[in-house]
DNA sequence: TTAGGGTTAG
């Protein structure tokens, strides 16, 4: 039931009373709910203004009631009133009732058809609009007029339709109507035929500002920023001044092409000509300043607006969300609601990202529910993708996958988002599986984003051959010079041990941003080539590239892996003092690792205690790792106590601490930690190593005896061990962390998974060819030493990548100088 | 009575 508070509405509705009286039996319920008092009945005049009546209805069910009354009273017979209803229903959001009304109009004229077409366009149902146009021309026997073409040209989604409709325009002689011509220009620009549009434009006998605007926005929408700015200059040279629509078309071009100067000049023009009070203009200014990162300017425009719509709010929310200020963004969202503005689909797209940035798992469910209740998943794939991304970023990967599976339409971005989600949650094999599914479904063409999402997954598992295949596809698709794809390739070659390939690719890509530099620095860092990493950093500064926070993570990691303690400290200060970068937890973690690895455990602990932010698990984990390397049981216990509180589910920390105890023979400590892990339902991650031979990846678990060639592998191992003992190899049994007899200890060392993989590589590949293996955990000290001997005996280069770094063995030496 | 050219996004 609804109330009609304003008296003018009462008066208008009272005009309906004769009808209500006539059909009281049928419409008494309606009359009651209209709350019309009996007094009104007496004073009713007979004139009824349908237009005013419908205008007074702000709710769909008001219109439906009036419609029913009019039908029954026989007043709705004219085409005019019926067509009006087609528009009213659409404006009130009931497209299906609009179509239903249209279908029941027995006699339709051009106005009826035009209305139905433009209704479809207004509701974004573009293919239906074009279909309706064809139905109109083929079945109605009527001729379209010049009102018909602008909406249908706007609705064309391919050039074939566009050209057909252009033929109709020519046949009927409407090509120089300024409205029709503007639509044609825009259509041709959108489909990349700017030359056709330009020819039409030059031939036009009369042009208005709309014609220029159509060319400018057409260029913008096809991504031709330079042409758009050129034609703007031409327009101004001809003395045509910019109107609000010109400005609203050109500001996004400045934003996208990062043309700050033009943007500022246009803002001056806007102020000078009093255009800043136009809603579209202000909204565009907010968006442009946000893209330039000029948040104070964006905020000033927003604050000075006389009226704001949902786009204004979305723009300011997205501006803060994208400048990584989710708290302010969320504040604007709250204020928007207080101002009574209903959020739309795009507000929720920003909100998903805000929730992810705030790491707010609880609210992620509410946001998801809100979107579901409005049925927005059916409306646009973008919102589904945003929700998948939100869950993936929160680490709730199962929910991300469930939402992905339920999406009514999946585009390439949906797939990319899920692949990235798995890869960033450390689930590289799942990411690869999703990529394979995408390839098998044969409906989606991978794009730049796909390569950027799958390459890190290949890097993670060391799948060099798969990575090379992607490289070939990247070349075929001309994406070699895309800085993000190229950087992923540099990273992939680096992480798969092909540092030379990484280098040669690095020199081919554009290097004006920090992104490729970060990759090449990190690549040398994990290979223990700290000096080279530092050289790249200096070269980067010489070339005028500004480092960012990731550069310093790569640089500090490089220092820590190469024992460059004082250099690391210097860069940590340089980052803050010269580049004004506030250290993140990641940087603090690198510093703890830097001190810890070098054996300065006290300094590392002291550093943690003086940190201005609360240390998380990664910080204590770095300290515990260092305690394991240097056998410091006391400090290890301090670190592990903290870890078992803050990240009690991570089994790796229990294993590290029990290893520290085992290493000094403190077996009761080992038992204590193990039972703690067992009580919490945690299981030790089994160690495994993989090797790619003849395009096939073989995986070996420690002590594995199920491989078809296991007998030959163990024969080879015995053979090799005998040879290396004669060269001076003595097994270091302190790396056996079980409390077993001495004889058993040597056997345990021999069956470590990396040795099985290396032995398999030796018997399966030509003599002296290089071997590369990947291990999921860290390589132990005895295996490290053992592999040095193997590289000498077999004259092979052996590359071992473990969960921490690379070990390059050649001629009995490791390139890391045994510092790891 | 119906029409062009304009903004936000994963």
Automatic annotation (TrEMBL):
<protein>
    <recommendedName>
        <fullName>DYW domain-containing protein</fullName>
    </recommendedName>
</protein>
<comment type="similarity">
    <text>Belongs to the PPR family. PCMP-H subfamily.</text>
</comment>
<dbReference type="InterPro" id="IPR046848">
    <property type="entry name" value="E_motif"/>
</dbReference>
<keyword id="KW-0677">Repeat</keyword>
<dbReference type="GO" id="GO:0009451">
    <property type="term" value="P:RNA modification"/>
</dbReference>
<dbReference type="Pfam" id="PF20431">
    <property type="entry name" value="E_motif"/>
</dbReference>
<feature type="repeat" description="PPR">
    <location>
        <begin position="109"/>
        <end position="144"/>
    </location>
</feature>
<dbReference type="InterPro" id="IPR046960">
    <property type="entry name" value="PPR_At4g14850-like_plant"/>
</dbReference>
<dbReference type="InterPro" id="IPR011990">
    <property type="entry name" value="TPR-like_helical_dom_sf"/>
</dbReference>
<dbReference type="GO" id="GO:0008270">
    <property type="term" value="F:zinc ion binding"/>
</dbReference>
<feature type="domain" description="DYW">
    <location>
        <begin position="728"/>
        <end position="820"/>
    </location>
</feature>
<dbReference type="Pfam" id="PF14432">
    <property type="entry name" value="DYW_deaminase"/>
</dbReference>
<feature type="repeat" description="PPR">
    <location>
        <begin position="208"/>
        <end position="242"/>
    </location>
</feature>
<dbReference type="InterPro" id="IPR002885">
    <property type="entry name" value="PPR_rpt"/>
</dbReference>
<dbReference type="Pfam" id="PF01535">
    <property type="entry name" value="PPR"/>
</dbReference>
<feature type="repeat" description="PPR">
    <location>
        <begin position="513"/>
        <end position="547"/>
    </location>
</feature>
<dbReference type="GO" id="GO:0003723">
    <property type="term" value="F:RNA binding"/>
</dbReference>
<dbReference type="InterPro" id="IPR032867">
    <property type="entry name" value="DYW_dom"/>
</dbReference>
<dbReference type="Pfam" id="PF13041">
    <property type="entry name" value="PPR_2"/>
</dbReference>
<feature type="repeat" description="PPR">
    <location>
        <begin position="411"/>
        <end position="441"/>
    </location>
</feature>
<feature type="repeat" description="PPR">
    <location>
        <begin position="278"/>
        <end position="308"/>
    </location>
</feature>
<feature type="repeat" description="PPR">
    <location>
        <begin position="309"/>
        <end position="343"/>
    </location>
</feature>
